[in-house]
Write a structure and sequence with these properties.
By secondary structure, the protein is of the alpha/beta class. The protein has a single domain, classed as Alpha/Beta hydrolase fold, catalytic domain (Rossmann fold). 48% of the residues lie in helices and 17% in strands. The protein has an 8-stranded mixed beta sheet, with helices on both faces. Strand 7, helix 11 and strand 8 form a beta-alpha-beta unit. It is globular, with a radius of gyration of 18 Å.
Amino acid sequence: MPVIDVRGARVAYSAAGSGETVLMLHSSACSSAQWRALSELLQARYRVLAPDLYGYGRSDQRAGLASPGLADAAALVDAILSGEAERIHLVGHSYGGAVALRCAADRPERLLSLTLVEPVSFHLLSHAPKLTAEHALFREVAGLAADVAQAAADGDGRRGMARFIDYWNGAGAWARLRPDLQSALAQQTARVALDFRDTMTDPTRIETLQRIAAPALVLRGSESPRPSRRIAALLARILPNARLQTIEAAGHMLPLTHTEAVNAAILDHLSHRTAAQRRPAAA
């Protein structure tokens, strides 16, 4: 994997194929390997880039834990693209989806298309009045985030990650994991706590998101936790050129559990956008 320096941190990314660029951002506690099957599907027609976000895979943790998280991650994307002028297709899942949304908000003119798979842009729920359903969902997430952060502070990564995994995948999911995978995930609890902080406090406003004109596909699982399903529905309404698609019987980790359906939906979205881009203008 190529490695670049971004503000003093080593950042690794995979690169394959040629054509229009598709840049893919992974979820918390994962790495660019999450997108291996999609990359293999796309690289015959597209140039596919997939970074390991800060603190995951082969990338270093970002320097300065007090720095603004989603803005930092968006700067990582800028560094991967190295000032390229061509527009890109941007894909993100969960935390990576929140980063992708921030990138799109910061540079909407850069996008050919946007694909968001259950982006955990929890800050959108926090903007709601306190007595609304959205604010109740934000409090639910805040409780989860507090538990993970406290476990990290206590040095009990296994407790924090067990809470995290079971919330997103259902009770008992942590216990079913292999012991070696549990141990590896437990080492990421502090990083996951920062991801929660970043996604709950990002300052991007709804008015800014309404300026993202690129065709957007918002994917969600029918069985996912309520906060992520609600965020997907909100974004499908906020983004001016968005379409919401629900993958039946899928949960929050649908790119891994329902890979074929998710990848087919993404390929269809990219293909329609590419065809429209190449279609000659009417006389």
